[in-house]
Amino acid sequence: MIMRLRSSLVTPALHVQFVKALEVGADAAITDLEDSIPLDKKDEARRRAFAPHRMPKLALTRCLRINSPTTAHGIKDLAALLEANDAPDVIHIPKVEAPEHVQMVESALATKHPNIRYFAIIETAKGLSRALEIAQASKKLDALIFGAGDFARDINVNIVWGNLAFARHAIVLAAAGAGIGAIDSPCFEIHNHRKLAEECHMARQMGFSGKIAIHPNQVETINQSFGPDKLSIEHARAIVEKSRQTDASIFVVNGQMIGPPIVHQAREMLNHYADITEQP
Questions:
Q1: Cys-Cys with 131: which of 18, 140, 163, 174 at CB 3.0–4.6 Å?
Q2: Do 203 and 186 form a contact (C-beta atoms < 8 A)?
Q3: Mean model confidence pLDDT for the chain
Q4: For residues 134 and 131, what is the distance between their CA atoms, to the nearest angstrom?
Q5: What sign has the CA pseudo-torsion 10, 150, 38, 103?
Q6: Rounded to an integer, what distance in angstroms lies between the CA atom of residue 205 and that of residue 228?
Q7: Comparing C-alpha atoms, which of 256, 217, 220 is closest to residue 238?
Q8: In angstroms, rounded to a whole number, what is the distance separating the alpha carbons of residues 235 and 213?
Q9: Is residue 149 a contact partner of residue 159, using CB atoms and an 8 Å limit?
Q10: Residue 152 gets which letter from DSSP?
């Protein structure tokens, strides 16, 4: 499922590298028209992104991060999508501050590209304050993404984990409330694998389902961190199997008291594991 992507590798639209994303094992490749593109290169990036054969059908999820639909360049991005015969699997909508921002993009593309899914990027205080409304904006919205860089700038703090933990918690809660995925912001220290692993561990413990990668060397660590944990999977299987063997609603597995919520969580974990192992 799209909402269960572990790793999503970002590349600027001026240098689209879908094949590279596939080679390093990313679950998704994101072509970026927004932050990585200077203002004077936006038109060129847009032309390259929609050039013939620039969005090939590959065994990964193809994503496109447009400019905010409230900006002139965002409107141009939507116009280019309407002219394109091929389209990405997912549109990443940045700077989302209201459910209407998601709805206006979906409405613009619904007729020409009815199968596109959407991810909303929460990266401002205003957007965070309406995170649940945004998460419920559309049945085609599959995930919320946390944009740590812009969010830290918006609230005037340094980009360190402790300063932004509350925002991450809020995004996970909003996504869970709407039944969609939550994807964490990238680790900006691209050669610090220890920090990346720590961020992945904390993000997974919070409830995030994946993380953005901004360098190919981050993909493997992200995939491992958000992939199946052998001991947890074995425990989940034991719980589900015991639930099938007993009529009791409360029982014990490996010394742990198990009730209906834990059985449901175990089943969800096994479903999640099945989805991941089916990916390349």
A1: 174
A2: no
A3: 91
A4: 5
A5: positive
A6: 13
A7: 256
A8: 30
A9: yes
A10: H
Q: What was the pLDDT predicted at 81?
A: 96
Tokens encoding 50: 């929609």
* Two structure tokens written together for 131: 């995170």
Q: How far apart are CA 139 and CA 108, in angstroms?
A: 15
Contacts of 74 (CB under 8 A, 6+ apart): 66, 67, 68
User: CATH 3.20.20.60 spans which residues of the chain?
Assistant: 2-226
Q: Which fold has domain 2-226?
A: TIM Barrel (3.20.20)
pLDDT band at 2 (very low <50, low <70, confident <90, very high): very low
pLDDT band at 54 (very low <50, low <70, confident <90, very high): low
Residues counted in the chain: 280
- 218-259 pLDDT, tens digit each: 999 999 999 877 777 888 888 888 889 888 889 888 888 888
Partnered with residue 143 across adjacent β-strands are 119, 181
Which pTM was predicted? 0.86
